Amino acid sequence: MRKLGTRHENLDRKVYRELKSMIVDRKLKPGDKILQEKISQEFGVSRTPLMCALKKLEQEKLVQAIPRRGFYVRRFTKEEVLEAFELREILEGLAARRAAMIVTAVQADRLRAFFRDADVSDNGQSIKRYSDEDRRFHNFLIELGGFDLLNDILENYNIIAVSYRIDVMEGLVRHPRETLPEHRLLIEAIASGKPDLAEKLARQHFARSRQQLLQEMEQEKARQIGRPAAGKPRTFKAPQQEQGQ
Amino acid sequence: MRKLGTRHENLDRKVYRELKSMIVDRKLKPGDKILQEKISQEFGVSRTPLMCALKKLEQEKLVQAIPRRGFYVRRFTKEEVLEAFELREILEGLAARRAAMIVTAVQADRLRAFFRDADVSDNGQSIKRYSDEDRRFHNFLIELGGFDLLNDILENYNIIAVSYRIDVMEGLVRHPRETLPEHRLLIEAIASGKPDLAEKLARQHFARSRQQLLQEMEQEKARQIGRPAAGKPRTFKAPQQEQGQ
DNA sequence: TTAGTGTTTTTTGCATACAATATTCAATCT
DNA sequence: AGATTGAATATTGTATGCAAAAAACACTAA
User: Fold this and answer.
1) Co-location of B57 and B117 in the same domain
2) What is the full DSSP assignment across B29-84?
3) Which of B55, B69, B74, B90 is the mutation pick for testing A, counting most A CBs within 10 A?
């Protein structure tokens, strides 16, 4: 009998996961410098696996590496969030189509359980719960598509996570009251095996959010022009977003 | 005056690039074990940056890591190639649409220069040249779309490279004679700023290749069933493709 | 004050060292 | 012979050490 899997997990993987969730959960904030010595002590590992984890996160664009200077938690621009939505529109559209084509009865049941007793009231608690379920739902949808590569891409690029980087309503672009019926229609389309409809609904869902986002961005821009210099030009801990490599 | 960029490039990046091109160029073949000591000596660096580079390549799925056993050059399955095409269909479709919307006159000229004097004869030399131009064309198309995230994803996941992993005609699925007119139509649609048409043509282009590929796979399968045990069950250097984690 | 300079302290990037685990291979037993 | 055990060897994963670069600090001169 061969012990195939080797359940050993390398340290850099653990550190990677830990660090990633710290970033996603905002325990490390955008612009923060990542002090290797500090973090590695905190995690009880040496700098070697931490370094490795950081390089992986760099590839995913969660952190920005500046040679000889260090790693910083990355700040996403509005444009990037918008791009993420644009990608999700087509990618999740595709996932929805495929999901509808290959969904099993059991999966359909699990799908229908989403948002079954959703609470669309306005208090923070409910919004948070809805937002969480929203994420779970979209993740499950991707999974249902059975598209390994796609799954991986969305995960590794945090495309979904990035989409929740809006500063209002727990990252939701539109109010649950507005999205709930869309979610329910989409669920039904997939569960009852209607690929064309599923894709159309999924895309519509994102297109609307994107439009809303775009509109907000325009408004914000207009406001900024109206009241230009909002205080002194602040100095950040973080280096200027010199994006490129 | 501040020396902003810091033109220093870390070793792991160099190693990463070097290694990647070795894999893409088949100097390291699928299934090969990557001997860290050997490679690091060959590159004149220690194992630390090599390790880092390998972990990055693992994330991109170019190599497979098995804890405590090592790194192996990954083997792509037909299914993965097919998935790559499916993704390219929608992603490049989107890129083509956006390209058509924002293309400048200069870019249009550069675009029209592609395949200008393409040679569609049957000899290996010509096929190779066409295949190379095909890659360059598609890369340029993505670039034109001006979609940073998308650009990055296609690059990092080697989605385009993977697509050329077919064993015939320098990785081309269909003969230049067949694809050349499609390329020309697509070029014209983008260059003359017709988003809808461009997207439609781009998708059609891939849909056809995908169909062709699918057909070949079916044929192959049929052949395999007709003549089942083709020799003894070979033993490979590589571990059995136990893909997942 | 502010700008500029030299010095100290931190931090990074990498090589190396070492323990833990795999692998190989020879010796032994059926 | 073929299977099984156990030592010898190789390889991996990680910690540590160190030189070079960057940042922080202190001091001087305008």
Assistant:
1) no
2) -TT-EE-HHHHHHHHTS-HHHHHHHHHHHHHTTSEEEETTTEEEE----HHHHHHH
3) B55
What does the alpha-carbon distance between residue A138 and residue A66 come to, in Å, rounded to a whole number? 34
Same domain, B17 and B94: no
The pLDDT score that the predictor gives to residue B3 is 39
Alpha-carbon separation of residue A77 from A66, A221, A243, B168 (angstroms): 18, 14, 11, 43
| Chain B residues within 8 angstroms (CB to CB) of chain A | 4-6, 8-10, 12, 48, 51-52, 55-56, 59-61, 66-69, 80, 83-84, 86-87, 90-91, 93-94, 147-150, 152-153, 156-157, 159, 242
Answer whether residue A44 shows pLDDT above 90: yes
User: Considering just the CA atoms, what is the radius of gyration of chain A in Å?
Assistant: 20
Contact assessment for residue A123 and residue A161, using Cβ atoms and an 8 Å cutoff: no
Q: Are residues B56 and B88 in the same domain?
A: no
Cα A58 to Cα A71, B4, B13: the distances in Å are: 8, 19, 12
Contact B60, B19 (CB under 8 A): no
**Rounded Cα distance, A214 and A219, in Å:** 9
If we measure between CA atoms, which residue out of A54, A1, A66, A21 comes closest to residue A240?
Answer: A66
pLDDT in tens, A194-230: 999 999 999 999 999 999 999 988 888 888 776 654 4
Q: Among A2-16, A72-86, A186-200, where is mean pLDDT lowest?
A: A2-16
Cross-chain Cβ contact A149/B68 below 8 Å: no
**B197 in Cβ contact with B189 (< 8 Å):** yes
Q: Which helix (H) or strand (E) holds A144?
A: helix A124-145
The first and second tokens of residue B227, run together, are 């003549």
Contact A56, A46 (CB under 8 A): no
Domain hosting A157: range is: 78-226
Q: Are residues A120 and A221 in the same domain?
A: yes
**pLDDT at residue A2 above 70?**
no
Are residues A40 and A50 in contact, defined by beta-carbon separation less than 8 angstroms?
Answer: yes
Q: What is the DSSP string of B118-140?
A: ----SSHHHHHHHHHHHHHHHHH
Contacts of B188 (CB under 8 A, 6+ apart): B112
